[in-house]
Amino acid sequence: MPASFRTPRTTGGRRALAAVTALPLLAVVLTSCGYGSDSDDDNDKAEVASGAKKIEGLDEVKIGYFPNLTHATALVGDQEGLFQKELGATKAKYTQFNAGPSEIEALNSKSIDIGWIGPSPSINGYTKSQGKNLRIIGGSASGGVKLVVNPKKIKSLDDVKGKKIATPQLGNTQDVAFLNWVKEKGWKVDAESGKGNVSVVRTDNKITPDAYKSGSIDGAWVPEPTASKLVAEGGKAILDESDLWPDKKFVITNIIVSQSFLKEHPKVVEAVLRGSVKTNQWIKDNPDKAKASANAALKESSGKALPAGVIDPAWKSIQTTDDPLAATLDSEAKHAVKAGLLEKPNLKGIYDLKPLNKVLKAEGKPAVDDAGLGVK
Predict the structure, then answer these.
(1) What is the reported pTM?
(2) pLDDT tier at 47, thresholds 50, 70, 90
(3) Residue 152 class from Cβ within 10 Å (0-12 exposed, 13-18 middle, 19+ buried)?
(4) Which residue of 16, 19, 106, 231 sits 20 to 30 Å from the alpha carbon of 61, by its own alpha carbon?
(5) Are strands 199-202 and 251-258 parallel, antiparallel or unpaired?
(6) Bridge partner residues of 149 (DSSP)
């Protein structure tokens, strides 16, 4: 679940700019022990090639991601050993997270060096540190978010008015998108309380299907595979968020790195990015194998693979991409400001795409753009 755009109120009634002061506590609560759970990277899915050398003499690079289909690049890259192949004798050590705040805190504490994460925690982390803790260095996924409703209660988009709609978390990426959609419909909702012409019910993705079955919600604006799980329970997808964006593309997952790690180990960062680019190409060239690989990784993480009726439609709605779709991240930040969940942020310098563009050039692929938000 991506982290929240929400910022606490100050004594003057204003919100401090992305000052999520409860992050360390939240990280502990969400992960129960430490920042996240180690994946079984010690099983050495990809053997280090004989004679391989450590890049820049580094023993290991610590990589974080969520066990979600929207993090397919990381899931498959880990599962298939594609990152390790590029890293040689520098060990890829993986940690999985269930929420953005804990991953950002892990990056800040140097428990991880590089992470796959959603746009809102990236923005929160960057603005909270006044632009000193992270850079976005690449894209990973677009799409994979839908509005799924109870078709007996909601026949059309206009019928959403007056109903109870779940989003994953106050101020998270999907919550902001739904609030923005509601606002464009001309309806009023208090962003903090979720009360208004539509009742916004913040519900963990893990329990949203049960909430739907019990009737406590009438629908949900959620990422995959939760959206497809709801459809499997009899829900109907009446809106794909991709349809609201130019070219039907918007960032749902990007790659971040600690600024200090980027400065100290640029060749290791390039190797991970090369692994990401090659993983995305492998996913494109082998869609069925990639889907099975991602599902195998999810089974290792949760103990249960997704059934075909869930993973098949979910997989089709997500596009892996090297492009961070920077212009859409800027738009998402503006949506959060418009919803009243974020003061206008200064995102200049949040991107450093030079390492990625170097990798893309070597792979014969076109360069990507930072929408004017890159380092000078």
Answers:
(1) 0.84
(2) low
(3) exposed
(4) 19
(5) unpaired
(6) 219, 236
Q: Residue 116: helix, strand or coil by DSSP?
A: strand
Amino acid sitting at position 2: P
Rounded CA-CA distance 41/94 in Å is: 6
Token pair of 13 as six digits:
């009634």
Nearest to 145, CA basis, from 68, 67, 66: 68
What CA–CA distance (Å, rounded) separates 190 from 70?
29
The label of the residue with tokens 């996913």 reads 283
Rounded distance, CA 127 to CA 19, Å?
8
Mean pLDDT on 346-350: 96
Question: Which residue, 352, 329, 350, 328, is CA-closest to 137?
Answer: 352
User: Distance between CA atoms of 25 and 220, rounded to whole angstroms?
Assistant: 28
| Contact (CB, 8 A) for 104 and 119 | no
DSSP single-letter state for residue 168? S
Strand, helix or coil for residue 65? strand
More confident residue, 339 or 227: 227
**Section 304-329 average pLDDT:** 96
Peptide bond into 119 cis (omega under 30): no
What is the total residue count of the chain? 376
Distances (CA, A) of 259 to 166, 177, 272, 290: 35, 29, 15, 31
Q: Does residue 49 sit in helix, strand or coil?
A: coil
Q: Which two tokens stand for residue 34?
A: 């430490």
DSSP assignment, residue 268? Answer: H
Which of 207, 131, 173 has its CA nearest to residue 3?
173
What's the pLDDT tens digit per position in 106-159?
Answer: 999 999 999 999 999 999 899 999 999 999 999 999 999 999 999 999 999 999
Yes or no: say if 318 and 356 are a contact pair by the CB < 8 Å rule: no
DSSP label at 248? G
Nearest residue to 298 via CA among 112, 96, 115: 96
Residues 6 or more apart whose Cβ sits within 8 Å of residue 76: 82, 279, 282, 283, 290, 293, 294, 297
